[in-house]
């Protein structure tokens, strides 16, 4: 992966991670997320080519056994709403965690999307009976993520096309 592209993407991902952490800390009692909880990872996620490059870099760094298993699962993967991500281990843990895409870093907290500014969605296991969600902690940072993602794509001349995670992991280049 080109070092400049990776550095810019990693800066964007740090922005997300740094903003998710205080939400997870403040609402820890209302979040069921933990290692091995992978319910949200059983759906089709489409990610950018840049994120796909980062996943492939993580795949290359993995052990041969892990790499072979992920590629095998990616090749068998079908776009079904309840099929697990090929990166998941049998115990529901992400094997490319440090290389995971934007969407995977956001899950667990209430999600806001600029195309649907009137709604906030969350995992059905989280935020049950919470009526006092701090919108400044939730929505404002996510608006900044969206703006930074637009800047990143412009800076790197990144196309808007996306593909399922498995697509990038099926036949990675050596």
Describe this structure as you would to a colleague:
The chain is mainly alpha-helical and 174 residues long. It has one domain (3-169). It is built from six helices and four strands. It has helices at 3-26, 49-61, 64-76, 102-106, 135-155, 165-169, and strands at 46-48, 111-113, 116-121, 162-164. It has a two-stranded antiparallel ribbon with strand order 1-4. The longest helix is centred in the N-terminal third of the chain and has 24 residues, at 3-26. The model has no long low-confidence stretch (mean pLDDT 89).
Q: Number of DSSP strands? A: 4
Q: State the strand order across the main sheet.
A: 1-4
Instruction: Report the C-alpha radius of gyration, rounded.
Output: 16 Å
Overall, the morphology is globular
Structural class: mainly alpha
* Rounded average pLDDT: 89
How helix-rich are the residues, as a percent range? 40-55%
Topology pattern, helix = H, strand = E: HEHHHEEHEH
């Amino acid at each position: 992966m080109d070092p400049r592209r990776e550095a810019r993407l990693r800066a964007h991902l740090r922005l997300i991670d740094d903003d998710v952490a205080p939400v997870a800390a403040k609402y820890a009692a209302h979040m069921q997320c933990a290692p091995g909880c992978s319910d949200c990872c059983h759906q089709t996620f489409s990610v950018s080519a840049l994120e796909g490059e980062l996943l492939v870099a993580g795949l290359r760094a993995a052990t041969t056994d892990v790499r072979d298993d992920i590629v095998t699962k990616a090749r068998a993967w079908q776009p079904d709403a309840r099929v697990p991500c090929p990166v998941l281990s049998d115990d529901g843990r992400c094997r490319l965690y440090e290389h995971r895409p934007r969407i995977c870093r956001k899950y667990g907290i209430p999600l806001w999307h600029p195309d649907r500014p009137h709604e906030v969605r969350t995992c059905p296991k989280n935020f049950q009976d919470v009526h006092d969600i701090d919108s400044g902690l939730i929505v404002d940072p996510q608006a900044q993520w969206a703006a930074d993602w637009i800047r990143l794509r412009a800076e790197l001349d990144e196309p808007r096309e996306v593909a399922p995670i498995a697509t990038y992991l099926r036949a990675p280049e050596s």
